[in-house]
Specification:
The protein is of the alpha+beta class and 404 residues long. The chain is 24% helix and 28% strand. The strands form 4 sheets. Strands 14, 15, 16, 17, 18, 19, 20 and 21 form an 8-stranded mixed beta sheet that branches. The longest helix has 16 residues. The chain is globular, with a radius of gyration of 27 Å.
């Protein structure tokens, strides 16, 4: 049953004429302004011979009010016919949909090999429904940060991207240099100087079958985005994931099959934690849903799990290289990659999560165990500053300038 409309918008008194209202109908297709004599009838109004129910709206003025959207203006005719839209109407609705979205991420440019070009219109950033990445999860992806007009570790991420593609049995539609050029041109078109570039390689569109044999060929997509969310700096809590970890064959591939990762993250959030940590089949520390884990032992050693059963983190590997400087300064005693037990992890002096989106994030609690003194540790802070400095002024091997 529709909610009654406000009293000041009720039926005119019996001896009055229908009042003239200036009503702005805001729909997914466009904003259309009507200036007509409208007669309100209970919880509905009629105009152009059509009846509409009115859900609660915000009254801005008694002579002019706005707020009608798809959910507040509901066609109330007897039939429930779904409209047949033209391509231009679809684009109008997609544009309005994007305009009404409340997101902390802005999408500035997209490349699609399906259309063979770049667009800066967010409503046009779409992919075919019969793309096998959509309905079968047959696709891989990777990400590179954009800092001060440079792409950070682009080549390292591309190398991992190509390894993932090989393991997923997806052929690249271009050679490596063409791929690299497309990604750089997409960032240049976006004008983004600080954000991130994410790109996908799919088995491609063609049909809804399981096998990619019917696909027209692989497809490449890339999007440049800006995230307005503040970067986390304070220590966070993690939990131990009860969601089964991916077997090594899939964990070492950066594919779009992220359901275990999503469920693990959701489980952590339900427990009031930032992320959940996976253990491998032998009970050793593995990784988080989209980040690596590292520790500072009681002996002041920087510890990180082997990459043979988990995703090889580009940022984690760079942190290990930069951490050599901390060894030379005597801040840490050394660096060790290997198996880490839960007991060793929870008794560590420091714990941290490492990833391209969070850089180096201190962990102050794991399940019910407080890590160290429960505060952000000096090694995590030092590593965070090192990776941030590397992003801003590191060598050419990790910083690729964008020709805007």
């Amino acid at each position: 049953m529709a909610t009654p409309i406000p009293s000041n918008l009720q039926n005119p008194t019996s001896n009055s004429q229908p009042k003239s209202w200036n009503i702005k109908f805001i729909s997914y297709s466009s904003s259309v302004e009507f200036k007509q004599n409208l007669g309100f009838h209970g919880t509905s109004l009629r105009t152009d011979g059509r009846s509409w129910r009115i859900a609660p709206v915000k009254v801005v003025d008694t002579n002019e009010f706005t707020g009608f959207t798809k959910s507040s203006m509901i066609h109330d005719d007897d039939d429930d016919t779904v409209p047949l839209l033209s391509s231009s109407q679809v684009m109008e609705k997609l544009k309005a949909y994007r305009g009404n979205q409340k997101s902390k991420q802005n999408y500035l440019a997209m490349y699609s090999s399906v259309v063979g070009g770049i667009t800066t219109d967010s409503e046009a950033m779409v992919i075919p429904m019969d793309d096998h990445m959509v309905h079968r999860g047959h696709g891989v992806f990777d990400t590179a940060a954009i800092m001060d007009g440079h792409l950070y570790e682009l080549d390292q991420h591309i190398d991992r991207f190509l390894r993932s593609a090989t393991n997923a049995k997806i052929n690249l539609p271009f050679n490596r240099e063409q791929l690299r050029s497309i990604l750089i041109q997409t960032v240049a078109a976006s004008k983004c100087r600080e954000g991130s570039l994410r790109y996908w390689l799919s088995a491609g569109p063609g049909d809804f079958n399981l096998s990619p044999l019917g696909c027209d060929g692989s497809s490449l997509y890339a999007i440049v985005m800006q995230d307005q969310s503040p970067r986390l700096q304070e220590g966070v809590k993690v939990s131990t994931s009860t969601i089964p970890i991916k077997p090594p064959q899939f964990a070492t591939v950066k594919s779009v099959n992220y359901l275990p990762n999503v469920l693990s993250k959701m489980e952590a959030e339900e427990k009031g934690a930032f992320a959940a940590l996976w253990l491998d089949d032998d009970g050793f520390v593995a990784e988080g849903p989209n980040m690596n884990a590292a520790f500072v032992s009681k002996e002041n050693m920087l510890l990180m799990p082997y990459f043979d059963k988990i995703l090889s983190g580009c940022t984690a590997k760079r942190v290990l290289a930069l951490a050599e400087g901390l060894v030379h300064k005597g801040i840490i005693a050394g660096i060790r990659e290997g198996n880490i037990t839960v007991e060793e992890g929870k008794e560590a002096k420091e714990m941290m999560l490492i990833g391209s989106g969070i850089l180096v994030l201190p962990v102050v609690q794991w399940d019910d165990q407080v890590i160290g003194d429960g505060k952000e540790g000096p090694v995590a802070l030092a590593l965070h500053n090192l990776i941030l400095e590397d992003m801003k002024s590191g060598p050419a091997s990790v910083r690729v300038p964008v020709p805007y």
